[in-house]
Amino acid sequence: MHLATLLLFCCASFNFDTPRLAGDQPVAPAHHSEEATPVQPAAPALPNAPVAKAEAPADSDASTAVPVEAILPAGGALLNSPVKPAAHGSYETTRQRKIWYGLVAAGHSAAGFDAYTTRRAISGGYGVESNPIMRPFAQSNAIYFATQVTPAVMDYVGHRMMTSNHSWMRRMWWVPQLAGTSLSLGAGIHNYKMVP
């Protein structure tokens, strides 16, 4: 135990954590011989921060010096370029919105007509529902609500196409609504002709 305490005090006197200063010279071990060995000087300490470059002297070659104007951007160059907006405005016009509402009304009306004629034909025993998705709703009044899902989806797709960033989509925005309306109207006319 005394030996451990002695080693602890001896090791505590050495500073392993402190760095060597730039002016410290390594101490050469003492030799008792006749010849003295020269002590090598320590390498110069590195700076803590980068040193700024000195400007080129006036008598230096002008072709190697880079002018400051070549490095810095021109003052007005950034302001003269067009600025792209962060968010675009609405592409739809008042006329397109009115047409869209008209197609909404026509699509939902055609779907209601299709539901009415389908229910009428099935109740009279003149036919069956050929659409497997609509077949569970064909025997009840739930068919009126079920047929409104497709026109609602077509309205959403048409509105998204009308406000799209792509110009070809903005030109063709009315196609989904018109296609859904024409299919529902065609099915309704077919069902209506089935019943005498």
Mean pLDDT: 78
Query: What is the chain-wise order of helices and strands?
Result: HHHHHHHH
Beta-strand percent range: under 5%
Continuous helix count: 8
Number of strands: 0
Low-pLDDT stretches = none
Straight-line distance between termini: 117 Å
Which properties best describe this structure?
single chain; 196 residues; mainly alpha; 8 helices
Tell me the layout of helices and strands.
Elements lengths: L1 H11 L55 H4 L5 H4 L13 H30 L19 H4 L2 H14 L4 H5 L3 H20 L2
Helix pairs in contact: 4-6, 4-8, 6-8
Description:
The protein has 8 helices and no strands. It has 196 residues and is mainly α. The protein has a domain at 94-194. The longest helix is centred in the middle third of the chain and has 30 residues, at 94-123. It is elongated.
Task: Summarize this structure briefly.
This protein is mainly alpha-helical and 196 residues long.
